[in-house]
Write a structure and sequence with these properties.
Order of helices and strands: HEEEEHEEHHEHE
Number of domains: 1
CATH topology: Pnp Oxidase, Chain A
Radius of gyration: 18 Å
CATH class: Mainly Beta
Strand content: 35-45%
Largest sheet: 8 strands, antiparallel
Helix content: 25-40%
Protein name: Pyridoxamine 5'-phosphate oxidase family protein
Distance between the termini: 15 Å
Number of helices: 5
CATH superfamily: Electron Transport, Fmn-binding Protein, Chain A
Shape: globular
Pfam families: Pyrid_ox_like
Structural class: alpha+beta
InterPro entries: Split_barrel_FMN-bd, Stress-Dev_Protein, YdaG_split_barrel_FMN-bd
Number of strands: 8
């Protein structure tokens, strides 16, 4: 990612990381995060997941649709804030289905207890690092001769 990072590049970087911490607010307004796998990111930069209809996150989303997706890659960290939508779209479920879904849901894409979860992003923040070695050298240099370490770049993107 670079200073010119746009929404599509950021969404693709998040898709490549694939696993995120999916954060909701529960009925007591407590922040709750759980790991989820991104099944797809479409051309509009919407994130798509499959979830069990009876999961606590679905209960959370019935009260508050605001969510956060937090991705941590080898050199990139991405935080995406948006709104979640739940669908019973059989065609979309079939399109998203794969080995990952088979591991979690044993009745296949026809299972009515599986929902499609779409996240429509609003904003995103990102941080990127040049790598461990370069960051360590930069930090050592800053500690010994002064200045701030060059630990990468960060920014905010309207999605």
């Amino acid at each position: 990612m670079s200073a010119e990072t746009d929404a599509t590049a950021l969404a693709q970087a998040a898709k490549d990381i694939r696993m995120c911490m999916f954060t909701t607010l529960d009925e007591n307004d407590r922040i709750v995060s759980r790991p989820m796998a991104v099944m797809d990111v479409d051309d509009a930069n919407h994130f798509w997941f499959l979830t069990a209809a009876n999961s606590p996150k679905v209960e959370d989303l019935l009260d508050n649709r605001e969510v956060n997706l937090a991705f941590a890659g080898k050199q990139d960290w991405i935080s995406i804030a948006g709104r979640a939508l739940l669908h019973r779209d059989a065609k979309k479920k079939e399109e998203l289905w794969g080995l990952g879904a088979d591991a979690w849901f044993d009745q296949g894409p026809e299972d009515p207890s599986v929902l499609v979860l779409e996240v429509v992003p609003d904003t995103a923040e990102y941080w990127t690092s040049p790598g461990r070695a370069a960051t360590a050298v930069s930090m050592l240099k800053a500690a010994t001769i002064g200045g701030e370490p060059k630990a990468g770049e960060s920014g905010e993107v309207r999605m």
